[in-house]
Amino acid sequence: MVGKSDKDSNSGGGDKAEMVEMFLKIGLEEKTAKNTIANNKVTANLLAVIQEAEVTDGCDRTVGNLLYTVATKFPANALVHRPILLKYIVSSKIKTPAQLEAAFAFLAAIAGENLKANEFEDACGVGVEVSAEDINLAVNEVFEEKKSMILEQRYRTNVGELFGHIRKKQPWADPKIVKQLVDAKLVELLGARTAADDEKPIKKKKEKPVKDKVSAEETPPLKPSDEEVNPYTIFPSPEENLKVHTEIYFSDGRVLRPCNSKEILDKHLKTTGGKVWTRFPPEPNGYLHIGHAKAMFVDFGLAKERGGSCYLRYDDTNPEAEKKEYINHIEEIVGWMGWEPFKITYTSDYFQELYELAVELIRRGHAYVDHQTPEEIKEYREKKMNSPWRDRPIEESLRLFDEMKRGMIEEGKATLRMKQDMQSDNFNMYDLIAYRIKFTPHPHAGDKWCIYPSYDYAHCIVDSLENITHSLCTLEFETRRASYYWLLDALGLYLPYVWEYSRLNLTNTVMSKRKLNRLVTDKWVDGWDDPRLMTLAGLRRRGVTPTAINAFVRGIGITRSDSSLIRLDRLEYHIREELNKTAARAMVLLNPLKVVITNLEAGSVMDLDAKKWPDADDASSMYKVPFSKVVYIERSDFRMKDSKDYYGLAPGKSVLLRYAFPIKCTEVILGDDKESVLEIRAEYDPSKKTKPKGVLHWVAESTPGVDPLKVEVRLFDKLFLSENPAELDDWLGDLNPQSRIVIPDAYAVSALQNAAVGDKFQFERLGYFVVDQDSTSEKIIFNRTVTLRDSYSKGGK
């Protein structure tokens, strides 16, 4: 489900001013009412609670505040009991926040089981009246217990902590009376508030502890949370799928609470063996991006962790946008990411079953053939108006749908629409299209069909037909949950467990398939695998490993927080962590400057040992580098004027050539302009007695008079200048002109001459690089994966 566009994401319905007025009637503050309207989910919940509690004409503020708490905190697994709780609130049998919290805890524990009124009332303190004398006694007891602390801290005492101790003694006490008595008791004990009480306390400077290597080693690391160890613990087991999934409120007052019957669930569990079955359902209309990596981690990862199975299902309901190229790419990239599908299926595999169920939906009076144009459908939905054909006879819709299937109706002249609720507060219940006519051959199903199901119709049904236990998708699909369960309930099918998580949004890039397609087709980038794109093919070509991507996704977690961008340097941190362990070291110069060693005999070449790994200690961890009369250093490592904080080479100064010898600059050859440095003359110290501070990487001629190995190096950077280019009207104008810089004639150590496509290296002092697929036998091409700089680890992982 990651990556699908969702034009119908607005779940709000009705006039905002009217809703604010209704919220004010139940006693909400104006600011709270307006803030509520800004949150579609809370608005929908609160409207439902108000209607269910039958207080649309208003109520007491105390009752209203409790209703608001129900709308925001009611346990989702106990929705079937919410009407009962609301009756207790409206009748003032439950009248304090403490009672309400106790009710939530009780209902969450019993979930969908039968509610026993006597046990519920005992747990919530219904009918318990705590006298002022009893409350005063509890307050006095707490003040006596905490007297020394209160006298020391005076009016800086944490009053909330005192309230907590009083609640333990009298859980059903009226909080207003508690506050009055606590305030009075503080004045009685401490006297009037003084100026000193209002002064900010002076913070004592913390003494730095003496470093103790032994104790530091013995201190155990902080224990990670359960979700850090196993992010899949949040998902319920398949046998728990008897609970109400959601509540669907209809404009006529009906409430649908869809849940599986025991017979349906038992049949499902028999098929799956009680195992977790998930699916990864990409549309084959483009290349997968890093957001799909998170979807794979959730879908395949949950199934793997629970010992279950995950389908790779191609959501191929739109024959015009799908290509065999994309299908092949998806299967290949899923394997590259380390996931193995239980089975590969296509939504088109179920076209016959989907058609038969559509016929059944018409027979049950839940669908009709419509002749409105797309423009008319849009207008009628905006005005919440029924189609003129909505109430046509069932037999007539059955006949017309059959004619649609047989190609007897022109494309665009008819659709099959689900008969849902055009006056709903949820835009995704406005009679969604189930089938449309398209005289286009299908890449997988061929030319058998000229009618194709919509995503909204097919997705949930195929989930059910494949016995999916957990239908996992990104948050923009949350408003479609009502339609998902309405359709399955209307057909009497098994209901999977649906859970939405936040989509992955990275800085300095775009993730929309439409925008990615624009970049590729308009040649702003060099194809779907351009290393600057956050497509998985692009990341692979850039040298990023699936291990690093999965570690990055695991680090983000499976949350429902959908408001933040993840900084790109967080991904880069995981890339460096992986490549630091796996990429062999080598030396390459991007802008070489010639250095002639004057005290080394012409034609002399020494083969020196260089380390592939920092901790190398045997011959297999070494590679040979020639040291000869002509060596090269990075041009940026030389300057004419030295300074104390400069560790490069300068006239009269010495540096160490890594793995080789110290050299000292004795002469500088300038160009005709008397400024450009053409060549440096230097002497080397064969005894290595010189101990310079600066250490430089270098490359030498392996054969006198022959240039070192020439390679092409491509330096990739962020594709966009802004952190969130998707928000910009002229997002293409934000492209980074320096996102790709090509160095055609870099110098490399000869050990790289046999590097193969995909080989990864750390070029010392430069970054991590990978051999690109454009490499030839004449020239090797390296792509920069990431620099050596790491800003993210300083702030945390």
Automatic annotation (TrEMBL):
It comes from Coffea arabica. Residues 583-685 form the Glutamyl/glutaminyl-tRNA synthetase class Ib anti-codon binding domain. The keyword Disulfide bond does not apply. Its EC number is 6.1.1.18. Residues 695-772 form the tRNA synthetases class I (E and Q) anti-codon binding domain. Keywords: Aminoacyl-tRNA synthetase, ATP-binding, Ligase, Nucleotide-binding, Protein biosynthesis. This is glutamine--tRNA ligase. The lineage of its organism: Eukaryota, Viridiplantae, Streptophyta, Embryophyta, Tracheophyta. Residues 199-229 are annotated as: Disordered. Residues 275-580 form the Glutamyl/glutaminyl-tRNA synthetase class Ib catalytic domain. One of its GO terms (cellular component) is cytosol. GO terms for molecular function: ATP binding; glutamine-tRNA ligase activity. It catalyses: tRNA(Gln) + L-glutamine + ATP = L-glutaminyl-tRNA(Gln) + AMP + diphosphate. The keyword Aminoacyl-tRNA synthetase applies.
